[in-house]
Amino acid sequence: MGAPKQRWTSEEEAALKAGVAKHGPGKWRTILRDTDFSAVLRLRSNVDLKVGRGDHCPLSDRIGAGMVALLRLKIVAT
């Protein structure tokens, strides 16, 4: 068993959204290694960053895979 999950901070959410906008969804390890985001996301694993994964993911809202594409378009458009 791992450490208990912590709620996402607004800074982490912003870094994750920017990382997805820059690298695309599914590039979790790349986002974690990017120096623009690594300091903020240092306590998160690539599994934590996956979209739609449980209550601890900032983008979750229990979205389905079909919504990921729409979310990606919305992030890129902003």
Automatic annotation (TrEMBL):
Q: Which molecular-function annotations from GO does this UniProt entry contain?
A: double-stranded telomeric DNA binding
Q: What is this protein called?
A: HTH myb-type domain-containing protein
Where, per UniProt, does this protein localize? Chromosome, Telomere; Nucleus, Nucleolus
Q: Which UniProt keywords apply?
A: Chromosome, Coiled coil, DNA-binding, Nucleus, Telomere, Transcription, Transcription regulation
Q: Name one GO cellular component term.
A: nucleolus
Q: Name one Pfam family in it.
A: Myb_DNA-binding
Quaternary structure note: Forms a homodimer and heterodimers.
At the top level of its lineage, which domain of life is listed? Eukaryota
Q: Which part of the chain is the HTH myb-type domain?
A: 1-33
Q: Which organism is it from?
A: Aegilops tauschii subsp. strangulata (Goatgrass)
Is Coiled coil included in the keywords of this UniProt record? yes
Q: Gene3D superfamilies given for it?
A: Homeodomain-like (1.10.10.60)
